[in-house]
Backbone:
């Protein structure tokens, strides 16, 4: 990591951070205190900061700073409009072609929620350059060698690539989490007094099974590791296996917790490290505590939970750690724990719009892979089905689409999404596979027919769910 890179603002994708920390303002801060800093030019205030993520090829050894500047130059040259999605790497730029795998505009709607497309003069692109770690998870076994007590990933990791984008919520949940993390890290970075303003850097996602809670935690860690790369060049995710902390050997459990947290503490001491600790199914800890209190569990269990809470409190003083937790059974979570979480977000089953978008991504993938066919997609290059918003606009216009239009397929897809009410995101992502397996002729099935099969399959799934 070059010196220039670490001096880049902490999270330049967040407007208020950039206004305080951005290069323009830095020049003002270095002026003598007698001259009050002049307000930034109006044009910058009006511009929307849009994140542009640049993935380097695994083979690239280019300096991230050089790539960042090259991408900024490239964006300046192109008077393009900004909407979420990929930007082609310009073939005439050999430096970018040699080093860059993908350029993507992400979350352009975070700040301008009602607007889909931004024009180049409304935008200040904030370029984040990163390379994926291909190492895979490291495992740390518990004392009896049975269960791994935690897994560790170097972020951003190949396994989590695209996970953030694949998770669909229409409630603004992802944006809320991203903003929360940005504020939490900014408060810490600026040394805001904990006694006066309290925040814990603990997130709790709770809700029914299969709604994407664990995936969202991992995806959030990955996203933040990309967005905060300039400030924290190293990031790790520690996934704690809560069950493994309860040793079958009396009094060993406390030691396991101590060992786990001493490892986390070590990582956190390195100030360029950003550490995410994921504790899945946190209610298992609460259950142990309840059972211990009622006398049905050895007192060792209660010590584990207490040790965990104490250790979490200790971590609070470290600026560079975020604790992410999930739970299935909201009512069962330890009240002492719930109280510590800053964000307690309910993650529910997908709404109609989210169901449509999840199934749309599945269908596009099956068309791309050639598993399904559709007359509209004969050219083999473009498998884009209209988005929910576009479909709604079309339906409102009262012109009914002809059978050859992509809107016709989209209407059928909407019917499938309606039929899937009550299914979790996990079940929805499995549905196309189950529907395909139920086809009499699985080769080259027409997309419209396939959607009928999917509606049938979803009915079966729902009835089985109710039994
Ligand atoms: N809202 C969603 N959008 C897209 N995919 C989703 C959504 N919710 C769930 N999924 C899919 O379901 C899969 C399972 O999600 P995950 O294991 O994260 O759920 P969970 O809420 O942690 O479940 P559990 O409570 O059973 O642990 C994910 O891989 C993801 O592909
Ligand atoms: Mg889970």
Residues:
């Amino acid at each position: 990591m070059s010196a220039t890179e670490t001096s880049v603002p902490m999270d330049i994708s967040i407007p208020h951070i950039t206004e305080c920390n951005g290069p323009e303002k830095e020049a003002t801060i270095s002026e003598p205190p007698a001259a009050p800093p002049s307000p930034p030019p109006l044009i910058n205030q009006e511009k929307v900061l849009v994140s542009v993520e640049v993935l380097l090829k695994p083979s690239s050894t280019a300096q991230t700073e050089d790539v960042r500047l090259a991408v900024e130059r490239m964006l300046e040259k192109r008077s393009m409009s900004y909407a979420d999605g990929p930007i082609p790497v310009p073939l005439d730029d050999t430096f970018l072609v040699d080093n860059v795998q993908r350029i993507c505009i992400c979350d352009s709607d975070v700040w301008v929620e009602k607007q889909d497309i931004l024009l180049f003069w409304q935008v200040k692109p904030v370029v984040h350059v990163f390379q994926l770690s291909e190492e895979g998870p490291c495992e740390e076994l518990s004392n009896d060698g049975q269960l791994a007590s935690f897994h560790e990933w170097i972020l951003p990791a190949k396994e989590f690539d695209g996970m953030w984008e694949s998770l669909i919520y229409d409630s603004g949940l992802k944006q809320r989490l991203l903003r929360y993390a940005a504020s939490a890290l900014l408060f810490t970075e600026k040394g805001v007094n904990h006694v006066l303003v309290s925040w814990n850097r603990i997130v709790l996602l709770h809700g029914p099974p299969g709604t994407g809670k664990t995936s969202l935690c991992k995806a959030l860690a990955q996203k933040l590791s990309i967005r905060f790369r300039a400030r924290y060049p190293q990031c790790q995710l520690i996934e704690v296996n809560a069950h493994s902390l309860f040793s079958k050997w009396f009094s060993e459990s406390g030691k396991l917790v101590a060992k786990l947290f001493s490892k986390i503490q070590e990582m956190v001491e390195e100030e360029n490290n950003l550490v995410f600790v994921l504790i899945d199914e946190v209610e298992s800890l609460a259950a142990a505590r309840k059972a211990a209190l009622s006398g049905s569990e050895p007192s060792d269990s209660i010590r584990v939970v207490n040790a965990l809470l104490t250790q979490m409190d200790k971590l609070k003083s470290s600026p560079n750690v975020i604790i992410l937790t999930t739970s299935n059974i909201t009512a069962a979570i330890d009240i002492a724990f719930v109280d510590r979480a800053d964000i307690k977000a309910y993650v529910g089953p997908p709404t109609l719009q989210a169901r449509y978008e999840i199934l749309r991504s599945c269908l596009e993938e099956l068309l791309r892979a050639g598993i399904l066919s559709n007359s509209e997609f004969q050219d083999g290059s473009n498998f884009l089905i209209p988005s929910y918003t576009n479909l709604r606009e079309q339906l409102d216009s009262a012109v009914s689409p002809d059978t050859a239009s992509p809107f016709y397929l989209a209407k059928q897809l909407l019917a499938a999404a309606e039929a899937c009410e009550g299914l979790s995101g996990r079940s929805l992502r499995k549905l196309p596979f189950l529907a395909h397996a139920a086809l009499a002729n699985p080769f080259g099935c027409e997309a419209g027919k396939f959607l009928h099969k999917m509606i049938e399959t979803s009915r079966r799934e729902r009835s089985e769910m109710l039994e």
